[in-house]
Amino acid sequence: MRTATVTVLPFPSQEAARHGQDSRARVRLEPTRRGRMLLTASAFLLGLLVAAAVLLLVDLPALAGTEGQQPVTITVEAGDTLWGYAEEHAPKGMSTQEYVAEVRAHNHLTTPRVTAGQEIELPAVEGATR
After folding, report:
1. CA pair distance 42, 22, nearest whole angstrom
2. pLDDT 10s per residue in the chain (130 long)?
3. Which residue from 31, 26, 55 is spatially nearest to 43, judged by alpha carbons?
4. Structurally, what CATH architecture does the domain formed by 64-122 represent?
């Protein structure tokens, strides 16, 4: 038959509890180096998340660099065509056909024909330089 030795820790005495003495009152917890590094890293990541959320929620066109990329609204006059507008307003590096397709998609036009008095928006195309 095997026997084992067990160490039994005493409970704090009722006498010490009555006088407000706690056996843990003298214990002071300090984080280890790894704990401090983890706390610093988590605070840094939380700061990055807050900064990203603020930039996404706040509309700052100066930071985004989209100040000059607003669509232009034009009232079509007699004799005007989408190809004429494309030659005049298309960014450098974009073909006339591509710009006409962008204008049609932006204005939900089923045909490339426009009529006098019609208002259309000429989109600012991203990725192409003017």
Report:
1. 33
2. 788 888 887 776 666 666 655 556 677 788 899 999 999 999 999 999 999 998 888 866 555 555 556 778 889 999 999 889 888 888 888 888 998 999 999 899 998 889 999 999 988 766 554 4
3. 31
4. Roll (3.10)
